[in-house]
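Form 12-C: Joint structure prediction
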Amino acid sequence: MDKILDIITGQVQDAFAACGYDTRYAQAGLSNRPDLCEFQCNGAMAAAKAYKKAPIAIADEVVERLLGNDMFETVEAVKPGFINIKLDRTYLSQYVMGMKLADKFGLEPVKNPKKIVIDYGGANVAKPLHVGHLRPAIIGESLKRINRYLGHEVIGDVHLGDWGLQIGLVITELKKRRPDLPYFDETFQGEYPKDAPFTVSELEEIYPAASARSKEDEEYKKEALLETAKLQRGERGCRAIWEHIMAVSVPDLKKNYDRLHVTFDLWKKESDAHPYIPDMVEKMKREGYAYESEGALVVDVKEESDAKELPPCIILKSDGSSLYATTDLATIVEREKLFAPNHIIYVTDKRQEMYFTQVFRTAYKTKIAGENTELTFVGHGTMNGRDGKPFKTRDGGVMRLSNLIADVEQQMYKKIIENKNQASEEDAKEIAKVVALSAIKYGDLSNQASKDYVFDMERFTSFEGNTGPYILYTIVRIKSILKRYGQETGTSDSVRILPATGESEKGLLLQLTQFAPTMETACEELAPHKICSYIYELANVFNKFYHETKILSEEDKDRQASWIQILLLTRDVLETCIEVLGFEAPDRM
RNA sequence: GCAGCUGUAGCUCAGUGGAUAGAGCAGUGGUUUCCGGUACCAUGUGCGGGGGUUCGAUUCCCUUCAGCUGUACCA
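Section 2 - Result
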């Protein structure tokens, strides 16, 4: 379906053209003065200079042409030169009916579907997921769903960190604690044990301990670097420990991501890029891109236009081992080979922006990434506590993701129990999980990804205000009415939407028409928060309508049936939106 | 030092080259038979400061102040 704004703009363009004005002045937009109109065109003011006429005179001429167009209820020129438009109610109701019958509510699939890889895990094996992993997971998941909804082919990749220093640290610490293990005996020739010498929780304790010690103890850190290099060279004992770490850690990570309804199509990891490294490095050297500097192998990425000094991109450390950039670049090699994507999107902390600038430039310069492979960095801000500082536990430690989720679920459970709407305690627990997820995800996604935000448990779990639970509440309320009415699905032959009578009803219909443009914008700008503000508005305008309209007791059955259709559409649009945001609504709460 | 980001109401956040800059929370006061009142309605001396471009700037440019972040072998 054509978008309503495009249709209006088309009409206005015709009018501009008929008056002898350039149609580029005819762009219509949503009104920023809802008290005056629904749509507006400001082009007369811009045109005034070019045509040396008073803006209001131009607006008057154009309006003259638009009067009598049955698409519009009113069209008027207002000083200094605004053209204000209200949509005809019959036209609007027909348009909304069209939305209801169309696939995806009339959203046109993208003309050129792209193959997109989204890299948004950022999790490291051997480390539990903590609150810092929340944002990339939530944002990336939503970007994946949005792009997919628009018709792109999207591959979500967790891209685990399993090849860096953190593994060396774990090996080193394990060696200190259990020197007797066969992995550390270089003369050992037999088979290593099948079971890991640690559990998940032990592993989760080992890493932080090792990390802390390496910051104080130079020798210890050197050893860890050595072990990392050994692992990357494929040394048997290190390799075996690495396998144990993977076996213990990956299922646990999956479990935690599942809990967030974050799913990946690929569980690739840094080590998967390892086989591509030698050839890649060789090629960079051969073609003259890479050279040795201060012992390391680097590629220059400076450009004339740079306002600041950009350090070269380090391809290999001076000890010959690979690092973050090595595997990221080799991963691009792999992705080009396996998928030949049009676009790779990285969702990580915004503090890594400069690093990704280096990697992207290196990738293009060395032709690892083709000219048609777009590389995009989506940097997200930090989740802070109420004090405005990075979110911590009460004693100042790093908050585990699972604990955070459990806290929110607990909070929701308390609220839901108070309602006494649930059949059983079991139901209440299930519902609490669903609502808690909406609180966490909506709380995150309703902020611009690039900005820091404050995680406020009280606010996010509230059923009032701009929150996930409020959105869910609205959906549940609609479902409840539909259930009582006895129609929870719409069949195409029953769709009849009458022209709106009240203002709140018209407002609801108008808001519904903005579904497609909102989705498109959110996709283009990689901005899930725009969907949040859209559904928040939609929920508001629905609740206003609901409050003014007694649906179930309406005696005019045609009118009532029409309202039911609007309710069905509103419910479906809301549910589609939260689906692409990455959460769902219960049937009651 | 250099570079980048941020600065909007008491708090948390939207927003746009245009007409009176919006929400939520908190506060206050309301809402005939309530389809879920976890709702709805009313109520607000705010775009860090200063220049510039423009018919028009919170939005674009310059400058200045404040906070945060980054700045070669961590990821």
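Section 3 - Comments
DSSP finds 20 helices and 13 strands in chain A. The two ends of chain A are 35 Å apart (CA to CA).
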